[in-house]
Specification:
Binding site for Mg(2+): 68, 284, 286, 288
Strand order of the largest sheet: 1-3-2-4-5
Domain Phosphoacetylglucosamine mutase AMG1: 187-290, 305-442
Strand content: 15-25%
CATH topology of the largest domain: Alpha-D-Glucose-1,6-Bisphosphate, Chain A, domain 3
GO biological process, one term: cell wall organization
Distance between the termini: 63 Å
Structural class: alpha/beta
Number of helices: 18
Number of domains: 4
Helix content: 40-55%
Number of strands: 19
Bound molecules: 2-acetamido-2-deoxy-1-O-phosphono-alpha-D-glucopyranose, magnesium ion
CATH superfamily of the largest domain: Alpha-D-Glucose-1,6-Bisphosphate, subunit A, domain 3
Active site: 68
Organism: Scleroderma citrinum Foug A
CATH class of the largest domain: Alpha Beta
Length: 550
């Protein structure tokens, strides 16, 4: 069995020393922190990606350098497994171990351990494809990553500056190229062609669409949406806003999907742009999240979040499945997290199976794979639709008995192709939403009226140790610190339609509090009361207690 190229690793590792006194964790979204302290992490992730590929007989592994919706000065990195899905969870801890090795010697010894534990044949080829978003720290971090690849002698393909979902698409298409499972052409062009031609077929014969405003969060979604618009031509007129990818500090700043979701308001930059009734959406910094919204006649803001997208899309698919009389063979189900608005869960549960899983896309994705057709979106707008292989085979082979069935089947086939099944994809999801709206003849208001959101509030609490907070029941209840859940239950009882839960964030050093209630003021009050409980319970300094906490 070949040995690790220790000399190359040593020489290059010395160029990327780990800062002392910094600990790293491969969390829900990979490694994510200030871009200034990620150099050694990127180098080591380069090595890890090569080893993961060797472990999988030279299948291509993806590496994405992004911190998504986080502030511009943050950055991050995550690995993508061969089918375009998130890194297998047992390897998350390998990643954490490598990132925290304090010296080159320790790194090399950790690598030897990893090879043994994970049974890696080092003589196998290593193949990786990588990309980054538009963050200013990206080029330097990618150089560190490339040193990691070089140390391992990996075969590499640089996908440049692109969106996270496009990188996931590339990983899957590269690995399925020339097989019966081919997912498309392994190029940017292949991606845009696949999505746009499916969309064009889906909306063929429908009245022309009115222009859609896209807030690109001043990120990589801007160039991506521009390219997509060329492929769409007249089928979907779009107006791009917040496209300043070279303006320092602009990324995700007072714009983008996370801003809209958290603040429940219009990005200020759109105030003089958006017309009442016009459809608009926001992407996040790496274009895998999508939030829709519109202004009513009184210029009141209305948000159409991931739950509203789930409802729109799942109902449409269910109706198509009914038309083709395949309800038994094509079971449609929905996956949500505790952050899903209670009204959406109620609406959906009355119509289809709904499952609640812990936060983080990998949990939703895996649960959605259990259905023939699984629709999943986090409330924050990250999600997609998964079709099992048997479901796809049936949809492409079934013989329709009537013209209506033939049309419905064709729509299902085109939905399969418009959707990026590897991961949530803002641009693909946007095309899917636009297609369904066109079929239903809905504007924002009609879509919004399917159910009324319960007012909700999300609050962050800074605590000294978020790991002291442990949850059960898909994060809806706290088991630790002991006794805190009972106090939350007591509070919740006092609010009409009240619901609240507390969980440690997987991406930030905070504990999150969510609350909803029948009235906005009540949801806010409940959230701030629970936040106060959490703060005090965690031993927060009374002098620093945020004044809004009750
Ligand atoms: C409330 C919320 O929006 N949480 C987000 C956030 O996770 P936290 O574990 O809550 O920090 O980032 C994750 C990764 O992007 C995303 O999957 C998740 O939905
Ligand atoms: Mg993102």
């Amino acid at each position: 069995m070949a040995a690790l190229p220790v000399d190359d690793i040593r020489r290059l590792s010395d160029l990327h020393p780990k800062p002392v006194d910094v600990g790293y964790q491969y969390g829900t979204a990979g490694f994510r922190t200030s871009g200034k302290i990620l150099d050694s992490v990127l180098f080591r992730v380069g090595i890890l990606a090569a080893l993961r590929s060797k472990r999988l007989d030279g299948k291509t592994i993806g590496v994405m350098v992004t911190a998504s919706h986080n502030p511009e000065h943050d950055n991050g990195v995550k690995l993508v497994d061969p089918r375009g899905e998130m890194l297998e969870s047992s390897w998350e801890s390998h990643a954490t171990v490598l990132a925290n090795a304090s010296s080159t010697d320790e790194l090399i010894s950790a690598l030897h351990d990893l090879i043994k534990i994970a049974k890696i044949d080092v003589s196998k080829p290593a193949r990786v494809v990588y990309a980054r978003d538009t963050r200013p720290s990206g080029p330097t971090l990618v150089a560190a990553l490339e040193d990691g690849f070089k140390a391992m002698g990996a075969e590499t393909r640089n996908a440049g500056v692109t969106t996270t979902p496009l990188l996931h698409y590339l990983v899957r298409t590269i690995n399925t190229k020339g097989t019966k499972d081919s997912y498309g052409d392994d190029s940017e062009e292949g991606y845009y062609t696949k999505l746009s031609s499916a969309f064009n077929k889906l909306i063929a014969g429908r009245p022309p669409r009115s222009p859609l405003v896209i807030d690109c969060a001043n990120g990589v979604g801007a160039p991506a949406a521009k390219i997509l618009s060329r492929y769409l031509q007249n089928s979907l007129p779009i107006e791009l806003e917040n496209t300043a990818i070279d303006t320092s500090g602009a990324l995700n700043n007072a714009c983008g999907a996370d801003f809209v979701k958290v603040n429940q308001k219009l990005p200020p930059s759109l105030v003089n742009v958006l017309q009442p009734g016009q459809r608009a959406c926001s992407l996040d910094g790496d274009a895998d999240r999508l939030m829709y919204f519109y202004l009513d006649e009184r210029r009141q803001f209305h948000m159409l979040d991931g739950d509203k997208i789930t409802t729109l899309v799942a109902s449409f698919i269910v109706d198509l499945v009914k038309v083709v009389s395949l309800e038994e063979e094509l079971r449609v189900g929905v996956v949500q997290t505790a952050y899903a608005n209670g009204s959406s869960t109620k609406y959906l549960s009355a119509r289809l199976p709904v499952k609640c899983v812990p936060t983080g896309v990998k949990h939703l994705h895996h649960a959605a794979e259990q259905y023939d057709i699984g629709v999943y979106f986090e409330a924050n707008g990250h999600g997609t639709v998964l079709f099992s292989q048997p479901a796809q085979d049936l949809i492409f082979s079934h013989k329709p008995s009537t013209p209506a069935q033939s049309t419905a089947l064709t729509h299902l086939q085109n939905i399969i192709n418009v959707v990026n099944q590897t991961v949530g994809d803002a641009l693909s999801d946007m095309l899917l939403v636009e297609a369904v709206l066109a079929h239903r003849s809905y504007g924002g208001a009609e879509w919004d009226s399917l159910y009324a959101d319960l007012p909700s509030r999300l609050v962050k609490v800074v605590v000294s140790d978020r790991n002291a907070f442990k949850t059960e029941d898909a994060e809806r209840r706290l088991v630790s610190p002991p006794g805190l859940q009972a106090k939350i239950d007591e509070l919740v009882k006092k609010y009409d339609g009240g619901r609240s839960f507390v969980r440690p964030s997987g991406t930030e050093d905070v504990v999150r509090v969510y609350a909803e209630a029948a009235l906005k003021g009540q949801a806010d009050e409940l959230a701030f009361r629970v936040a106060g409980l959490v703060y005090d319970e965690a031993g927060g300094d009374p002098a620093q207690r945020p004044k809004e906490f009750l």
